[in-house]
What we know:
Layout: H1 6-11, E1 17-19, H2 28-36, E2 40-44, H3 51-64, E3 70-74, H4 84-94, E4 98-102, H5 110-115, E5 119-124, H6 127-136, E6 140-144, H7 159-169, E7 174-177, H8 183-191, E8 196-199, H9 201-204, H10 213-221, E9 227-230, E10 238-241, H11 244-254, H12 259-262, H13 268-277, H14 300-331
Parallel strand pairs: 1-2, 1-8, 2-3, 3-4, 4-5, 5-6, 6-7, 7-8
Antiparallel strand pairs: 9-10
Helix pairs in contact: 2-3, 3-4, 8-14
Protein name: Nitronate monooxygenase
Pfam families: NMO
GO molecular function, one term: nitronate monooxygenase activity
Amino acid sequence: MALKTKFTEAFGVEHPIVQGGMQWVGRAELVAAVANAGALGFITALTQPTPKDLANEIARCRDLTDKPFGVNLTILPTINPPPYEEYRQVIIDSGVKIVETAGSNPAPHLPSFHDAGIKVIHKCTSVRHAVKAQSLGVDAISIDGFECAGHPGEDDIPGLVLIPAAAEKIEIPLIASGGFADARGLVAALALGADGINMGSRFMCTVESPIHQKVKEAIVAGTELDTELIFRPLRNTARVASNAVSREVVEILNRGGKFEDVKDLVAGTRGVKVYETGDLDAGIWSVGTSMGLIHDIPTVGELVSRIVSEAEQIITGRLSNLISSDERENVA
Ligand SMILES: Cc1cc2nc3c(=O)[nH]c(=O)nc-3n(C[C@H](O)[C@H](O)[C@H](O)COP(=O)(O)O)c2cc1C
């Protein structure tokens, strides 16, 4: 059995489950495992230091799977922006047919992607941005609630309200993101009006995820309380693991510090060390509140088939039993 939704139909994937872009984590091994499990994974373009490296990473992923996968292009306003057009051209030339955009308005990139027959899923954190992206012509929306790892935006609306509020306004396929880690979440997202779920933290904690075992063990040991929101006063909030570094960043900025004062603490070169060496206090690393729902380190295949089969059991078992018991009472 499989769960068929507007999303699985439009994107030609077996299961309504997405592995969104993850800086340092979204590499070929993980993305191919997600594809082989029948879900949709995204290579994170900017994890690759140059556009040429991205081309190699896409080729490496192709060697590991013959199923569809995509590339995430995170467009962030930075002082020294990466060569976005070159990364975009590499994606187009590679023949990949699905892109996840995030970070800012996808408009400058849409015509090139669409001309190349590429479907674009735009990830955003508010209903107004979702509506805007839909009007620009993106092919699906992924909406990230306050629970999520990475950038939850500044509105602080959790998924329980954000997802149905978005579903009221979005006609194209809608992916619910942030805080999803198991079958209960998938069924809840479908009930709230979404056509699938996106998971970051949960996929990060799998056998194929290319990060140090100690980080995965820390996610299993962690709870929903063990994240920090950094950069709040700068209105560029990011949800990351609570550790010595993130707590120091929060404290400095709360005291009125400026970005310059925390720049070295939050450097990507420090963050990547966490994943490479397993030193949990080496720098900033992203994880969401769904950490409280993650209790094991399965293979991606085990994880996806568990979520799908348990979701089917919840729908055909527990939920439909609720209806039939009412009907029995009515008959009696
Ligand atoms: C380690 C990590 C790195 C991430 N990096 C990115 C990124 O570069 N671009 C992006 O669009 N989202 C990024 N995200 C967000 C995820 O794609 C996804 O939206 C989020 O993890 C969903 O919340 P969850 O962790 O509760 O599942 C990252 C998430 C994690 C856990």
